[in-house]
Amino acid sequence: MEKLTFSKTINASRQTVWNILWSDTTYPEWTSAFCEGSHMITDLQKGSKVLFLDGKGSGMVSMVAEKREPEYLSFEHLGEVKNGIEDTESEQVKMWAGAHENYTLTETEGQTHLLVDLESVGMPDEFQDYFLKTWPVAMNKIKELSEEKG
Question: Does pTM surpass 0.85?
Fold first, then answer.
C-alpha cells in the first residue's frame, strides 16, 4: 500500500480550517491547485456519495467513509467520472478503487495542524508524482484562506 502524507500548521481554529476545506465557496479556491473549475457535489454526510469534478464534469466518484466534524473526514474513492458518466467497474478503476483520502485536524493553542494522507493499493506512479507537486500548493492555499478568515 502506498501512502502519501502532507501536513501544514495553520494559525486559525480547527473549525475555521474545517469550514475552509468544505465550504462551497472556498473548496473550489484551494482545489484549483489540482484543476481549475474543481468542485464537489455531496451533502458531506457519512455514507453519502461524493462527486469530485472538474469544470467539464469529469473526476472521481467517492463516498464519505467517516466524518467527525471538525476533527476528521475520510473519503473512500470508488471510481471515476468521465464526461458525466460514472465508472466503478472497469479494470483500470478496480486497480485503485478503495483508496482513502483522510483529513485530520488537531488544534493546540489556537493553531491547527492539518494532516492529509492518501492511501492506495494501486496508485499509479504518475498520480503519486502529480500529488507530490500539487498537494503542497493546495496546503499553502488552505493555510492562506484559513488565516485570512481566522
Answer: yes
Q: How are beta strands 72-82 and 59-68 bridged, if at all? A: antiparallel
Residue 66 near residue 73 (C-beta atoms within 8 A): yes
What is the grid cell recorded at 67?
Answer: 466524518
Long-range (24+ apart) CB contacts under 8 A made by 128-135 are 128/2, 128/4, 131/4, 132/4, 134/33, 134/34, 135/4, 135/6, 135/33
Closest CA to 5 of 117, 100, 135, 134: 117
pLDDT digits (tens, 9 = 90+) for 25-57: 999 999 999 999 999 999 999 999 999 999 898
What is the predicted pLDDT for the residue at 137? 98
Q: What is the CATH number of domain 2-149?
A: 3.30.530.20
Rounded CA gap, 14 and 66, in Å? 17
H-run or E-run covering 29: helix 27-31
